[in-house]
Amino acid sequence: MFERFTSNGRAVVTGAVEHAERVGADSVDDGHLLLALLDRQGSRASFALAALGADRRREEIADALAEARRRGGLTQADTEALAGLGIDVEEIVARVEETHGAGALAGAGAGRGRKGLGSWFGHRPFTREAKDVLVRALRIATARRERTVGDEHILLALTTRPGIVAEVLGDRGVTREALDRVLA
What we know:
By secondary structure, the protein is mainly α. The protein has one domain (2-69, 108-183): Clp, N-terminal domain (Double Clp-N motif, Orthogonal Bundle), CATH 1.10.1780. Helices cover 59% and strands 0% of the residues.
């Protein structure tokens, strides 16, 4: 599948691996793909992110992704739904971190022993979510009758997959609909 990626699409994937390595993550997730997209310049995705103002909010986005990892991968919507049931996620996170250390719920070690797309590069494996984003990117490109997968397709795929990344982007106005308008 990777041979169908443009140089910008490949740069996002390799950039995501580098992000995972920098933070010592055992696997590459969809958040790493987003951070790699935010690092890009001069591409269709970087143009779209700039047009929607997300490029100026990189640190805010990185902080939101880190906070979601700290909550064990729960989205803000999940946290609010649990609060409606009387479950204080922040209190649970604080207690777990008190006992097991800061970032105990962040999922360190989750990818050990698994082989995935990342092994093509001799690096960390990709999580199921990250693989799903790349497959979705391929499907988006195919549906648009485009022969290759660019970084814009990866960005579009990130907005269509329910979860933390789509929530973080959506909270900042980067939705599939907004991207379709900007990329048209």
